[in-house]
Structure to design on (448 residues):
């Protein structure tokens, strides 16, 4: 029996271990940190051995399976390579076993979770048995256990960096590109190269959907559909999505189709209009009829938690939770796509990004900025270099919200979009967003 070791016992590691076990491998899971009780129970039920803290036993295998998020420079991977062991990324191991002929793979710097979730929602509303997951929620390996009409997977740059085999995707989507995870990849060029693999490794007859502005960076081949605003694309492609003032139109094979009118959705921000357009386009490319029933297909979809989510209104000021804005590009997008003057809450643990573009956007879109977390000083310095001095410092989220409340006037927006990770103050961006919303709700309740 062939032996495999799985590095990592998180969601993707658990999926890898279970798939390898079901395929007949002898499986050993090695996790550097503690393993959750739920994961231990899963391993015990399937007679999968595991350890907390890496030991030499992990190298007593024929192949190393790498779950998502394990850095390429990690000591355990360098040791495995020095021993001549075969290292296999999650996607190369899992995707050949995904049980569908309609695979949609979605990546991008921002919006990929929304596009993945919305595409899955539309497919389900259309009556298809659709699986939705990957880097979002359900591990991709879980879609190897039964047949699906379609599967939609969010793929991170971490996962794609190790992908070498055909992904089999009929539709590959890159929502947009902006610097992110430079600390992990080592450079923006390496980050882009990883993202571009979703196009390079798609099915030879599959279509790609990208932003027209990212075309020169990605240099895609094959059939490509580009998204552009109020104009024809600059590049000669198989088709294009035109975002006009009130609707999105798909032009493909000489035919035009209205994807949707903007009043068909309640999602906040122009970036979400792009997300809806890409989702509907992906579904149409799978052969699903959307004409005449777009409102029905979109009905019931809610913004994903902490992604430009309405947290409530107090004294004429709207509070928006965009805690998922963990990089500069995401926060800039939120600022520019949400109408109205703003008080923005920024800061957390950084990723080594340049805050100059962030400061420029704050100066343009915001009346005030409230700074928290480890990066507060660096963000303040960037704001000062741009001549923006309307900032305040806060030690806690409670203090940040209270300061924002005192600064915001009726008709304005208080936006939590930190441009940083949460790990200096919270265990996750979700915990940060939930705390922000809790504070806002308590203030609303006390005022009523």
């Amino acid at each position: 029996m062939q032996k495999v070791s799985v590095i990592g016992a998180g969601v993707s590691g658990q999926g890898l271990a279970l798939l390898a076990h079901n395929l007949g491998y002898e499986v050993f899971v090695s996790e550097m940190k503690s393993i959750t009780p739920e994961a231990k129970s899963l391993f015990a039920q399937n007679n999968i051995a595991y350890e907390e803290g890496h030991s030499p036993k992990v190298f007593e295998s024929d192949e190393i399976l790498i779950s998502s998020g394990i850095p390429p420079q990690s000591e355990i991977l360098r040791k495995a390579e020095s021993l001549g062991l075969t290292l296999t990324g999650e996607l190369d191991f899992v995707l050949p076993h995904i049980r569908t002929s309609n695979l949609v793979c979605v990546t991008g710097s921002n919006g990929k979770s929304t596009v993945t979730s919305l595409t899955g929602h539309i497919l389900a509303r259309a009556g298809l048995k659709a699986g939705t997951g990957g880097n979002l929620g359900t591990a991709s390996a879980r879609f190897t256990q039964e047949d699906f009409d379609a599967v939609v997977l969010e793929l991170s740059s971490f996962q794609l960096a190790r992908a070498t085999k055909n992904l089999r995707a009929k539709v590959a989507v890159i929502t947009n590109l902006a610097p992110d995870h430079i600390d992990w990849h080592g450079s923006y060029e390496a980050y882009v190269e990883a993202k571009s693999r979703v196009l390079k490794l798609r099915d030879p007859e599959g279509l790609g959907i990208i932003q027209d502005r990212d075309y020169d960076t990605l240099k895609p081949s094959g059939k490509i559909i580009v998204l552009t605003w109020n104009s024809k694309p600059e590049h000669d492609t198989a088709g294009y999505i035109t975002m006009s003032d009130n609707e999105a139109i798909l032009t493909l094979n000489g035919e035009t189709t209205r994807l949707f009118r903007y009043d068909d959705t309640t999602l906040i921000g122009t970036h979400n209009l792009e997300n809806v357009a890409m989702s509907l386009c992906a579904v149409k490319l799978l052969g699903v009829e959307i004409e005449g029933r777009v409102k029905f297909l979109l009905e019931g979809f809610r913004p994903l938690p902490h992604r430009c989510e309405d947290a409530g209104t107090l004294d004429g000021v709207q509070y928006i939770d965009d805690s998922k804005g963990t990089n500069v590009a995401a926060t800039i997008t939120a600022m520019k796509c949400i109408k109205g003057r703003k008080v923005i809450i920024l800061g957390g643990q950084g990723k080594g990004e340049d805050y100059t573009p962030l400061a420029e956007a704050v100066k343009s879109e915001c009346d005030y900025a409230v700074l928290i977390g480890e990066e507060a000083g660096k963000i303040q310095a960037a704001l000062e270099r741009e001549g923006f001095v309307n900032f305040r410092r806060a030690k806690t989220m409670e203090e940040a919200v209270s300061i924002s409340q005192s600064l915001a006037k009726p008709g304005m927006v208080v936006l939590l979009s930190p441009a940083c990770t949460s790990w200096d103050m919270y265990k996750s961006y979700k915990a940060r967003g939930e705390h922000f919303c809790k504070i806002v709700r308590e203030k609303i309740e006390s005022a009523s």
